[in-house]
Amino acid sequence: MRFLAKLLASLVIITIVALGALLIVLSTNYGLPLVQKAVSTFTPYSLRAESLDYDLLTPLSLALHEPELIEQENETTIYRAGYASIALSVWDSLDGSLALQSVVVRRANIDLADKAALPTSLSVKHLALDDVAYQSNSFAFDHADIQVSNWRNTEDKWGSWQGQFQFSTPSLSIDGQTLSNLLLDSELTDEKWEIWGLSFNSEFGNVTGSATVENKEVLLHQLTLSDARIERSSNLANLTAMWGSLSKDYDIAINRLDLLDVSASVDDFTLEHLNLSAQSVNLRNGELVWAANDASSLLSFNANLINYDTWLMTDVLAEMSLSPSRIEVGAFSSKIDDEGYISFAGDMTPASLSLRSLVLNGLTLEVESELSTTLSSHWKRFDNIRVGSLSVRHTNVTMPDPAFPFQVIGLNLKGKDLLLRQASHDGMWLGQLTGSAKAASINRILVSSPYAAMKVEEGIWQLDPLSLTFQQGQLAAKATANLSNPSRPWTLEGTGLSLPTSIYSHWLGLNLPLDGEHDLDVKVSALGGDGDSLAYSLTGALKATPHSTVIQVGEDESFSQSLMTLFSDKRENAERNTLPISVGEVNITADRGRISLAPLSLVHEEKRSTLSGQWDLVTGGGNLSHTNR
């Protein structure tokens, strides 16, 4: 036993002395040849290097300057770098694997095809690649710095790692997109990849952000795009396709999105100098969706110019909150076509629209049939519509409907506490409203300086006054309606001097082919709950004194025959002639839906005729009597 103990002690001493001698040799000029001899003896490779750095104070690490690893069989260079250092992890290598504490490589070209030449059991706790380059068909970078923790040589293309991953390069190309000044600071834990910071510059602007990627879900904590100039190009199409593929493969949630000084010109859409901030934006299968917890998405933006189709908005400013059940607009304002101005604030739900304020100033609006249909459909989506404060000034509105063209020049409206739609019924159910204009054309009848004032108090709607000025006359009217009563009783009073007689055919759709002027005095009342209520209740009187009257008759129609078509629903598009006639005073009375026309004298070329009529709105029957003298 003593012999064996002495022998074992001698072997340990000899091993320690030999190892010490080896370490001493490594720190001398003979260190590099010794390493080269060991590599060529124990591996199928040979090693070349300019020099070797070794320090006895760190005995498990060494560094090589300008190293080159060559395959002995065919003299092929496998690896070449400007500098390489390794530090062995003894304890992790006791199981027979090659475990390195750290590896630092500088100025190398990465070739993934040569990864297979590395030991399959190789692992590196800290891998640093400085000033390295890589190039493939779709991916390339140069002068990059890479740091990876716990890297292992696996069958994966780039191996696998757990822990920190840091990457920076002055230039990276991916699928034709060139990114410059790329910085990435991240950490991979199991299947969770935390991107603490990402930034790069591209032809579409500068990007910074942070994110978490886990289980096909991407949570963007913050994403910023700044100084972007976006135009239609092949690179934009490729980027859009890449984003479309990414957004379909991953569910994307964005906690905060910022766009700073972004401009774009794509097809019929132009955007200049947009600044936007959004919170809680979610994408699923490439489509916008709401968060599972029904959280509001906050959005604010401003832009120098937004041009879509024929709409031009400048100095745009908006702040809003969006959720599945409500859109809250804190503020929106914009110049329109460099002359007009619009601003509003309020809330919108699927069933109601409530604007705290609405301001329109200096606009020129042309509401064509398609736009009118679209606006009408959106309007009817709401059960209730409110406007707390309404201000419209110096606005022009044109509705080029061939059946009923309408134009207002210099429109001014001022309203307060307006309820314009209630329980899916249009009307003015609450509030105060005044309106005026410089001029108007209502179905080809010119009106100057129209004015109206109305209000609703305790359920009573009042119009007082309504004033319309025509080319040679004027109309003044007032009206009331009890909105709190389901029967909707209403009254109307009006007086007019030299009113154009054509207003009845142009505005009310009556077949009354008369032109000229007339004085008017009317007072009627009825129930407006429905058509039957109106028919049973219409009561009142109308008195008119015509002046300079002419009647339109067909080419093959006599004066007497033309008189019998008055007030009927008959419509004729044939050519018509005008005949001057003298008309006496018109008196029409209504009593609970029964309408009477008192005998009316008409004279044409000394031919005198008398008209009288009776109609019953309840039965729908009636007739017009005609006698000649």
From TrEMBL:
InterPro entries in the cross-refs: AsmA, AsmA-related
Chain ranges of the AsmA domain: 7-596
GO cellular component terms, semicolon-separated: plasma membrane
GO BP term, pick one: regulation of protein targeting to membrane
Name this polypeptide is given: AsmA family protein
Protein's organism: Grimontia celer
Source taxonomy: Bacteria, Pseudomonadati, Pseudomonadota, Gammaproteobacteria, Vibrionales
